[in-house]
Amino acid sequence: xxRLKREGLGMTSQRTRNRLIQRLREGGIQNEEVLEVMASTxxxxxxxxxxxxxxxxxxxxxxxxxxxxxxxxxxxxMTELLLSRAKSLHRVLEVGTGSGYQTAILAxxxxxxxxxxxxxxxxxxxxxxxxxxxxxxxxxxxSSEGFGWPEKxxxxxxxxxAAPSSIPMELxxxxxxxxxxxxxxxxxxxxxxxxTRREDSDRFEVERLEPVRFVPLLSGVIR
Length: 223
Ligand code: SAH
What we know:
The protein is α/β, with parallel strands linked by helices. It has a domain at 64-212: Vaccinia Virus protein VP39 (Rossmann fold), CATH 3.40.50. It has helices at 3-7, 14-26, 32-39, 72-85, 101-107, 120-132, 169-173; strands at 61-64, 67-69, 91-95, 112-117, 138-142, 155-160, 175-185, 190-197, 204-212. The strands form 2 sheets. The protein has a 7-stranded mixed beta sheet. Helix 5 (101-107) links the parallel strand 3 and strand 4 (112-117). The chain is globular. The mean pLDDT is 96. S-adenosyl-L-homocysteine binds at residues 63, 67-70, 95-96, 98-99, 101-102, 116-119, 122, 143, 147, 161-162, 215, 217-219.
């Protein structure tokens, strides 16, 4: 890819990106690894050119098909939670690839990432962006029936970028012992929720964290 396009200019420059990182810090994000990866990942490449100038505002933005690229603060918060709570990060699952931005961030912090998306054209775009950025430790697929990717599990951690009305058992079952699931839950009012699988049993601990706003977790595929 063109070096200038990748590095960005003006509203997409490193300087603008650094201002966003400063804002995330002020918002309470403390994990330096997460901040470093976000500082060096060009979010403007995950948006349509017309929206690229807004890439370093701390807001979610449309990516087509009624979906949105997650707000940077939320990406940072969920990633930080995952890193601080998971015992290991060998195999990680992301549900809802969307633009591929969160995927790119996670991929640089975990060993092997599996990511599923129900809207095939979005996944196609995300895949080529990841390739352009030289990210190769990610396996993706258009989600089939059910949630997640059970054949690739169990996972040390699962991050879900779309909200179900209640936590799907299917996703909990894809967790390894001591694995953690970070997921927004709810319809009108949603809360970021952390689920931890007990080491030696099928018991799960559930912690409800701050209010959030995500698109809904849906079943069925769009080709
Ligand atoms: N982190 C992504 C967020 C995209 S929005 C980004 O920053 O771009 C959430 C995505 O979850 C949407 O693309 C939506 O199509 C997808 N999604 C919703 N339900 C899903 C399901 N059951 N399986 C996989 N993806 C799903």
